[in-house]
Amino acid sequence: MTPPQINLLCVLTLSLGLIGSNNAQAKSDKHNNLKVTPEICITSNDEQTCEITLELQWELSNDELVCILSDNPAYPKWCNDSLNQRTVNIKVSTSTDIQFVMVSKESNQTLAGAKLKITSASQPQVRRRYRNPWSLF
Amino acid sequence: MYRILLILLITLGIPLVGMAKETCSTKHECIEMRNWDLGIAIGWGQKTNPLKDFDDIPVFFIPTVAYYGERWFFDNGNIGYSLTEQEYFSVNVVTSYSLDRAYFYRWDPSNVFLARSSQTATNFTDRPALSISSEPEPVFNSLESRHFTMLGGIEAFIYSQLGTIRLAYSHDMFSVHSGSEAQVKWTYGWHVNQWILDLSLVLDWKSQNVVDYYYGIRPSENAYWSQKYQASSGWNKGAEATVRYILTDNWDLLLAVRYTQISDEIAASPLLDKDYSSTYFVGAAYRF
């Protein structure tokens, strides 16, 4: 297994952990929040790749150092070194959604997640249909 | 088989005339490229069977399956290749299948998903036919098989404000009957608010080989009538209407009716006791 695959597996595992968290945990994590800005990037007909600088901003119920991972191998794990740092900017170039997960640097426990969604502004290509779909035989 | 190869060679060999970028304007006459279009209509309907002693054919649901690529397309059993697609006309090489066999067989593609056989009363010898002449009654032994075949040919569409005209010619690709068919069809569509209405008038020509294969009498079926009835080419005339009421993006209410006046040349066959076939269907259609 290559390092990017391990990274992806790690993110997927953490994501599943987020989904599977029970209500009690959700209540205890209600002050942990990770926000990606912008949340949506719209690609055009000419430019299918989204090249943008993202701001990741987080809030924590308890001050602690965190790491941020993504499911895109191009953006490996990033960790902060200061409790005062609550944002980070990253440049991305992607044509697919990116899921970010914030974990505790110390315990590796999942704290919050955020997703950058890539949407195409181009209309689907259409052409004339030659048969009436409901024509009777 | 050589005809298939010929059609393929013609298809691939013909220089590409060109494809207009915008060839359809309204949603209901367009299809998204490179995406399967699947749907099913559920309801109730019936197709009358002009064959003597054959049951009418109930219609409980109608499937629709289509896939359109850049030039190739598959649409409800028809495979086609667009040679040119312009604002005012299109030309396609296309396959189709005959509708005539559907009167004889339950699992003919035209009868897909029908509830019961159209051949549940084929014991011709048990039922004397209505005969008003001095000729022997058309009583038959078991009918010989009418095999399935695909037709291959060319179709052209002409688009105008007065509607769409389809001109088509196709020939038996598998030498089952070695016959040909042609069609002239005029279709006009209305789209008002949630209502979509398509009205068509159609002329279907069938060559002598086609008429003879499906409606001619084989010697083993009845020696007298195999000599007496001599098939010849003929034109069927028909009208059809499809009315849709759009409920949601996925759901439509659907009413479809069709009437075909069978040509005199075919209606003269002793296999038939009606010179028409009518079909109706009413139900709800779901597009996936």
UniProtKB/TrEMBL annotation, chain B:
Compartments, record wording: Cell outer membrane
Keyword Membrane attributed: yes
GO cellular component terms, semicolon-separated: cell outer membrane
Protein's GO biological process: peptidoglycan biosynthetic process
Keyword field: Cell outer membrane, Membrane, Signal
Major subcellular site: membrane
Similarity comment: Belongs to the MipA/OmpV family.
Protein's name in the database: MltA-interacting MipA family protein
Species the sequence originates in: Shewanella putrefaciens (strain CN-32 / ATCC BAA-453)
